[in-house]
Write a structure and sequence with these properties.
With 513 residues, the protein is α+β, with helices and mostly antiparallel strands. 52% of the residues lie in helices and 10% in strands. It has 19 helices and 14 strands. Strands 1-2-8-5-3 form a 5-stranded mixed beta sheet, with helices on both faces. It has a 3-stranded antiparallel beta sheet with strand order 4-14-11. Strands 6-7 form a two-stranded antiparallel ribbon. α7 packs antiparallel against α8 and α13 packs across α19. The chain is globular, with a radius of gyration of 23 Å.
């Protein structure tokens, strides 16, 4: 995730000064233009002595992803350097050559870095998404081995299918019968949380039940993730660090939530270790059982890595599906084509059938082009460097690549980039006439990262999303409840969200549809 706080200095005196300038700036500033419109060709960042560009940063706190996207799109090189206070600088880029340089060619020089780890260590510990160097390399090797097993894939299929048929479909059926309004974003998050907990450590939080209960573990996990995200977005990190020192406010709540999450995880680890004492391996095939059975028995190690996987699987697929169903409502012609593809498959499609749903796959990719679950991600330079476009990077500088902006670059997607068009990902076979999926290189479309850190759960994510799409769309239409055609607002915590939720009505499809 992109830490907006890295654009600002942590010094208290400066923040007070900047706030005074900010009040003056607001009086003189008109409402910013819509993020969907082309950026002004002359869009430039104003920078001043000592305070750098902090006035503009403050003025755009409420739309930081859209603002930084506009800056990148207005730059001839798709790269922008923002000046912080006291001479600091931050690089933002949507240039595929730069992205490849950061994520692959010079991967060794771009780490998560101190800013990221300082903010997230209390929650994630030394887990894979908060690790660098040999620690990361070891966790990656262990995880890669487990993710590539056929038995894990089969286990994931079973978990997703059970959650879909036993929980999600009944909840939607009840909502359709009652003509009630659901927060579909919340429903999808609950669905994803149940799935990832079962997959990660074999525990069912039963978060998606008709009563929509407040699971103690789920609430603690959400609280820990939210406050950790607020740390990253903080314009004055000194404040949360002081609250942590004093044990008050949000930092006190974070400490309690993290303690709840980690104690819960360690209780499950103890139970599984006790089981291992009586047999050579565990019968269950969740990730935690696999790690323990293969000899990785350190409590902190397995706790950290499992919490990281829960965090990754909890928000990303639900965020992608939330925006996907919104775009389908806006584009009924795409919905019809997906429905035709779904109806060609069996009632409960097996893995190979889901894999062959190429139009659905293309539609999901196109949706994530506009609304990537992780819209921007930052790295820290280990040593001085020069990016392929000539941008100078000094040791310790943060460099952010920006999938949200990249999905809106005409240079990458053509003059019709604003159109939701799944066909841009497809090519017809001249003999059979069937569609074939044509992927983009991961440095043009880094939605799942790229290079050595490319997402291990990519296949798992598409499997889950396509099963949800097939299961839901076969029976229901998802109809957003909007006020006067209002567009939802894209916002970011640790992953993307729809601000205020996604209120919908669920409508049963007629048999003829």
């Amino acid at each position: 995730m992109f830490e907006f706080s890295l654009l600002l200095s942590p010094y208290l005196f400066f923040s007070t000064l900047s706030l005074l300038f900010y009040l003056f700036f607001l009086i003189r500033t008109t409402k910013p233009s819509s993020s969907s419109a082309p950026p002004p060709p002359s869009l430039k960042i104003k920078s001043y002595p000592i305070i750098g560009s902090s006035l503009e940063v403050f003025a755009n706190l409420h739309r930081r992803i859209q603002w930084t996207s506009d800056l990148i799109r207005a730059s001839p090189t798709a790269t922008v350097v923002i000046h912080r206070s006291l001479g600091g600088r931050v690089v933002l880029t949507g240039n595929p050559s730069n992205v490849q340089h950061i994520l692959k060619t010079h991967f060794h020089n771009y780490h998560k870095g101190r800013t990221f780890t300082t903010n997230l260590t209390d929650f994630l510990g030394g887990g894979i998404f908060n690790a660098d160097g040999d620690n990361w390399k070891f966790q990656r090797q262990v995880s890669s081995h487990e993710f590539n097993t056929r038995s894990l894939r089969k286990f994931i299929e079973t978990v997703v299918d059970t959650e879909l048929s036993d929980r999600l479909i009944p909840v939607l059926s009840t909502a359709a019968a009652d003509n009630s309004v659901l927060d579909f974003q919340d429903i999808l998050q609950r669905f994803a949380f149940d799935n990832i907990c079962k997959i990660a450590f074999g525990y069912d939080p039963a978060y998606l039940l008709p009563s929509l209960p407040q699971s103690k573990f789920a609430v603690a996990f959400e609280e820990a993730a939210r406050i950790s995200s607020e740390r990253l977005a903080s314009v004055l990190p000194l404040v949360w660090k002081l609250k942590r020192l004093l044990g008050v406010g949000s930092e006190k709540r974070l400490k309690l939530a993290v303690a709840e999450v980690r104690e819960f995880a360690k209780n499950i680890i103890r139970e599984k270790k006790e089981e291992l004492n009586h047999k050579s391996s565990l019968d269950s095939t969740d990730l935690l059982s696999r790690f323990l059975s293969s000899g990785h028995s350190d409590d902190d190690f397995v706790t950290d890595i499992v919490i990281s996987f829960i965090l990754a699987g909890r928000d990303t697929t639900s965020a992608a599906l939330t925006w996907f169903f919104w775009l389908l409502f806006k584009h009924p012609e795409v919905e019809d084509k997906i429905l035709n593809e779904i109806n060609e498959k069996s009632e409960s499609p097996v893995f190979d059938e889901v894999k062959d749903m190429v139009y659905t796959h293309a539609s999901l990719c196109e949706s994530m082009r506009f609304y990537p679950p992780v819209p921007a991600d930052s790295k820290e330079a280990v040593s001085d460097d020069v990016l392929p476009d000539g941008t100078v990077v000094k040791k310790g500088m943060r460099v952010t690549y920006h999938p949200y902006a990249m999905g809106r670059l005409e240079e990458l997607w053509g003059s019709d980039w604003q159109d939701f068009r799944p066909e841009r990902w497809l090519q017809r076979d001249p003999v059979s006439g069937k569609w074939g999926f044509v992927s983009r290189d991961p440095y043009t479309y880094p939605v799942f990262q790229a290079g050595p850190r490319i997402c291990l759960g990519k296949e798992m994510a598409f499997l889950q999303m396509k099963r949800v799409v097939a299961g839901v769309m076969r029976r229901f239409r998802v109809v957003p409840v909007t006020k006067d055609g209002a567009e939802p607002v894209f916002t970011v915590d640790l992953a993307a969200k729809m601000k205020g939720g996604f209120p919908v009505r669920i409508v049963e499809r007629a048999c003829s549809e």
